[in-house]
Amino acid sequence: MSRFSELLRAANNLKLLVAIGRSGGDLGSVADLVDNMLATPQMDACLQRFRAQPGAAAMLEARYPPLQPDLARLASLPEGSLGRCYAELIHRLHYDPAFFRPRPIDTEALWLTQRIATTHDIHHVVCGFGTLPEGETGVLAVTATQIGFPAYVLLTTAAQLSTFRLQPQRFPRMSAAAAHGISLGRQASCLAAVCWEEAWDRPVSEWRAELGILEPADNEPYGLTSA
Fold first, then answer.
1. Which residues contact 10 (CB under 8 A, 6 or more apart)?
2. Through-space distance between the first and last CA atoms of the chain, rounded to whole angstroms
3. How far apart are CA 124 and CA 140, in angstroms?
4. Predicted model pTM
5. Which of 128, 133, 186, 219 has its CA 20 to 30 A from that of 89?
6. Is 3 exposed, middle or buried (0-12, 13-18, 19+ CB in 10 A)?
7. DSSP 167-194
8. What rounded mean pLDDT belongs to the chain?
9. Which of 193, 151, 211 lies closest to 52, judged by CA?
10. pLDDT tens across 88-103, in order?
């Protein structure tokens, strides 16, 4: 990548981060930021880290399908199951389960990007982070820590810097959420490499125990229970 191209990319990243901050997290701008980091050395390093995770290389090579949840079926699963908790979160917040930008999955970078995008809200459920800005920063910090997903590294860093500069009264909670996400990322198995669809009926508590999520964020000020 030429020095000029890198400077252009950096300038575009800055513009997108400003747009995301001003809009309160516009999904279109987030998707633009994600796509702007696809063909970069940072994404290459992310793919290398992902491949090193147990089971990840097989998922990548097989192009394991992006998530396409049947919310009606998931809502009928037992209380406390991953599928039901996920469906309840989507319904409670009036989210569109297909909020992500459709992308092809013919390259490794595109596949990983789409897999991470489609499973984002599952990470909220299993990690216990809420959906306000602090909770979003916490859940993004998990994947940023585990595989260095470029856009999430930029977003978690920018969220802390922006809060510190413009909303210092919120900085303690923002920094605590980011630190919590980093801690979970270091302790837990790689969430991006989990085949959630194969056990929707398993209790969230069992998933957490298996993955090593020992201190979920549910009851923190930035947690799902507090959201």
1. none
2. 42
3. 9
4. 0.87
5. 186
6. exposed
7. -GGGHHHHHHHHHHHHHHHHHS--GGG-
8. 87
9. 193
10. 999 998 877 666 667 8
Report in angstroms the alpha-carbon separations of 26 from 19, 128, 199, 215.
Answer: 8, 22, 32, 29
Run of H or E residues at 120: helix 120-127
Amino acid at site 157: T
Interatomic CA distance for residues 55 and 52, integer angstroms = 8
Q: Tokens for 42, please give them.
A: 């940072």
Tens-place pLDDT, residues 166-179: 889 999 999 999 99
Supply 185's token pair.
């990322």
**Could you tell me how many residues make up the chain?**
227
Cα separation, 224 vs 227, in Å, equals 5
**Given the structure tokens 């569109």, which residue do they identify?**
96
CA-CA distance, 1 to 179, in Å (whole number)? Answer: 33
- Asked if residue 132 lies in contact with residue 163, where contact means CB atoms within 8 angstroms, the answer is no
